[in-house]
Structures are given as structure tokens and as C-alpha cells.
Amino acid sequence: MAWVSEMWMRKEHDASLHSSNTNVTAITPESDLRLPDRHFHIVTTAALPWFTGTAVNPTLRAAYLHRKAQEINNSTDQWVTLVVPWLELPQDQKQLYGEIFSTQQEQEEFIRSWLSDKAGMPDVADPETGLRILFYPARYHSGLCSIFAMGDLLHMIEEKGGPMDVCILEEPEHVNWFRAPGDGWTMKYKFVVGIVHTNYKEYASSHYSGLWTAPAISMVSSAMIRAYCHKVIKLSPVLQSYAPEKEVVSNVHGVRSEFIDEGLRRASTYHPRETESSYSPTQKTDAYFVGKLLWAKGLDIMLDLQDYYKQRTGKYFSIDIYGSGPEQEAIRRAFHGRPRRAEEGESNSSNASRKRPRSILQTTLALFGGNSPSQMKEDETKAGADTTPTSLFPMEIDFSSFETFSEKAKEHFAKLRQELPQTFAELRRQAVPAEFRGRVDHAELKDYKVFVNPSVSEVLCTTTAEALAMGKFVIIPVHPSNQFFLKFPNCLAYRDKFEFVANLRWALNHEPEPLTPELAQQFTWEAATERFMDAAAITEGEARERERSGRSKMDERIAWFHNELGKGATGDMLRKICGAGPVSHQAKYLQKQLMEGESDEGEEDEDDGLSAKFRRSSFAEALRATVGDLSLFMQ
């Protein structure tokens, strides 16, 4: 009889679902961001003046969402708070920003000035009625080129950030990788939506250790998004699947109004010219590229395209490259080529008379500040000194300052590493007509008409959107990351090298189509904000399906497990092993900042996670020593 009762219960359950089908498309109140009285916190992992995508785009999203919220509420109240990192260490600020802010107020003034002057939003920049800005303590991890929070970020927001209603996590996986122990985002906020910016799995795969790091990053990122988000938005389909029932693909980014203004200005002066005479031979450069100078950004592909272009046309195409990055010198050497010795006009005699390289002894003496025996003998002969066997090798080495030797050695080997080829591309002999012009605001590059971006590691390339908004040709590969751009008439997509050459030749000899107001609207942040609100919504049917499948309970368990792993000295050790570097000691940082006193010896110390008696045991001492050795090995 048990199976009969189970069958009837299942029929009743299905009938109840069927009876409520009329409401399955309705949006749940928690996820309806167009309702009045909604307060937003936008948490990101980078801040201006670090002009990276995870700093610029969240700042503009917060600004336009602030305007939208004021419009919905018909009020000038502050509905949106931008939560950005405050780099506590001056050396971190110097490395990323090129300048040092002595206070958070100074950096806030910089952000507001940028919003007013560059973004053209003085109303949003107003500290009284505009966007609220909140800083959290953070450190820069140079090995990962990323910023991570220090301490309990949620607790800090709860104390200073106002109502905990809607949270927008920019890069939710990044925010939570090395987070301090504490309550999860979904426990504090009514609704949490994550926006994934970066294809970390792709970057890990391109590394020499990618065979095991890429799957690990993929798994951990999925766990972080499952644990801490109600909904996740992927900017393009190139990203992996994190939580299928939670995710949606939508381009929720826009471009600054000055890019669109330039595109409309070009359209107003448009004069179609369909012949090859439209390409002026006096034009200095055929195309340009803007981006961070990393091989992963497609610059190695650019060299391959240059070689094929020369093979088909007999010459390279000229290009101006804008940007900076840790691999810029290696990239510059690859594009400029390795000069042939025969072309340097060196004869055989001059080759024979070329100076011999230093011996190991000479190099060592030079580093220590001493002279080589031959030099000493020559000096003594000139001085008329007695050249006895004992005076030929005095070894006058200054060992008093070992630090000086260490510094010289570091400089010597650093220069050697910089000069040695890092990739096969640097062994090229033929120079490509490329000019490296440093960092620049893309909006200033109005004179070009062809933008080339061969990268396939991006999630959604902002510079491609900016170039299209300016009314230029963009030449990009057919790839999932470029799906949003393929519908625009000035997007010349290629599937192979031959199509690239054909597209570039066509672009150089024709004028781009004028940007229409309808196309321009799709690039605006107003349109991006509407797409964001649509993408964030969860229907009643989706919510019921999640509850029925038990996914929500599983996600809560993941968050609990992650929190337990991060507690105490054990958590600090695990973060260290996983490569957290300067942000490993989260529990220690919390103890210093938040704990007013220490627990009694016999009581359980929650920060350490071990009783005092166990901490004093020989087993614990041996464990700490082993972990310490392992941590040093992992550094």
C-alpha cells in the first residue's frame, strides 16, 4: 500500500504545480530590481585609478544604476553604494596606481572627479546626493595580479553600508577565493547577483601548470558562485558553466558617452567612398590595438597574422600598439625583431676583435667591487710598483658590505633575465612596423578607423565595444567571446588567416558604415542597465524548481563548509598552501582588528581552532613545523 500512497502524493504535488502555472512567469519580489525602495551594494575587486575592466565597469554600473534607482523612486536619496578596495600598503598603491593616496578621502575624490569629468556625470559624483563610496581594507597579490579583501568584508559593510538588500558581486569567484571566515553573502542579503568578468580557467590553461590548475580553478570557482550567489550573469558564452540553474548569458556592460558621441559625430560627416582612393597613402598607420600587453591578449596571434599578411601581400601592415603590462618588453622585442649581424656592417676582422666575455672570476670580482688580476698588474706597471708574485694577486675585495654585493647581483641577474628571450616569438629576425605608444585613454584615439583585436581569451572585450561605438571598423575572430559584436555592420569577423587579410584590405580601402541612433543605443550604459535588470530576474517557476531539486540546501552546505575551512590557523595555512600569499593570514588579521582580548587558556580558542592544551602538545608542534616547511616550499 505504501507505493499507492506515494503515487497519490505525487499526483497531488503535480496537480498543485499545474494549478499555479499562471504564476510561473512572474518575477520573485527579491529579484525584481525595478521595485521601489531597493538598496544596492556593488562590490568589486579593483578601484580607480587602476584602469582595468573590473574597476571602470563596476564604477559606471553603479553610477547608472544610481540614476535608474532615483528615477524609479522619484527621489534624490542615495540608493547605491560602490564598495571598492583600499590598498593599505603604500607600495601596493605605487605599483598599481603610480601614485599614493594618504587617505581614503583622497582616493574617493579622485573617483568622483573621474565620474564628473571623464564620465560626464557630475550629479552622480556629488557626495551628498550622488553615489555612495565605501572602502574595504585589501592587499595586492603580485603573483596573481589581483586585489583581495582583508578581514570580514560583510561585517564591515553591515556596519557602514546601510540596508542589506541587493548585493552585486563583480567577479564573485574572485571575491570569495580567499575570504575571511564569516557569514555568507546570501545569509545577509535578500538577493545576491554575481557578474563574471574574467575567464580564469582560460588563463590557467595557458600556464605551464595548467594541466592541474585549470580544473582546480574551474571547480573552486563553481563552488564559490554556487555558495554565494542567487543568480549569476556571464558576459559571454565563452565562460564555463558554474551553476546551470542560476546562470544566464547577457552583455550587461556599456561604454562611456564620449565614445558614442564620437561615433555620432563621424556619422554626421559621413561621405561614402567605395573606391580604393578612400585609403590615403599618406596615412601613417594601417591599424591599432589597445589593451594590456600580455601574450594572453592575443599578441602572439597578431604576429602570426602579420607573417601571413606579408606572405599574401608582400609586406607587413603597420600598427600602433597602446597599453602596458608585465610582458611589454618581451612583446616589444618580438615585434621589433632580432637584428641580423650581417646587417650591422660587421666585418670578419671586427668580429675577431670583438671583446671576449668576462670570465667567472672577473664577474665575481666586479660584483664584489674588486679588480681582476690582469687589471691590477696593468695598474701596478703604470705606477712603477714592484711586481712580485705576491703583489700580482692582492685580491682587494671589499667584504664589509655584503648587501652591496647582493644588490649588484640582483640587478645583474634581473637585467640578464630581461635580456634573455622568454618566448620563441622573441627569436624573430624580421621587424614588424609596430610602434609601442604606452598607456592612453581609448577615447583620445579618434584618428584611426581600423581596430584589430585577435584575442580569444577575453570574456567580453571592452575596447572592441568602444571602437564600434566610435564608428570604426573592428577586425576580430569568430569566437563565443565576440558573439555580441557580430551583429554590427562595422564588425569584420574572420574564421581563418585568409579572411583576416581580406577583411583588413577591405577595411583599409573603404569607409565604415555610419553609426545609427538605434545601434548607438545598444552601447549605452542605460541599455546595459536595463539588460542587467532583466538578466538578474528569477521567475516563480525557476524558484520552485530550485526548491524542489534541493539545490538551495546544497549551496548552503557549500558555504558552510567553505567557512569552516577558512577558520583559525588551519584556515590561514590552507590559504597559504593555495597561493593566497599576502592575504593568507585572514584569521590573524581578524584577531588583531576585532578581538579585544584573548580567551582563557583552558577555553576553546575559536580563532586558532585548537585548545590550548592541544596547541602545547608535541604533535601540534611537529604539525606546525611541517606546515611551515610546506608553506616555504609553496612560496
Automatic annotation (TrEMBL):
Subcellular location: Membrane; Plastid, Chloroplast
Region: Disordered, residue numbers: 337-387
Source species taxonomy: Eukaryota, Sar, Stramenopiles, Ochrophyta, Bacillariophyta
Lineage top rank: taxon: Eukaryota
Assigned GO CC terms: chloroplast; membrane
Protein family: Belongs to the glycosyltransferase group 1 family. Glycosyltransferase 4 subfamily.
GO terms, molecular function: digalactosyldiacylglycerol synthase activity
Major subcellular site: membrane
Protein name: Digalactosyldiacylglycerol synthase
Compositional bias (Polar residues): 360-375
Keywords: Chloroplast, Membrane, Plastid, Transferase
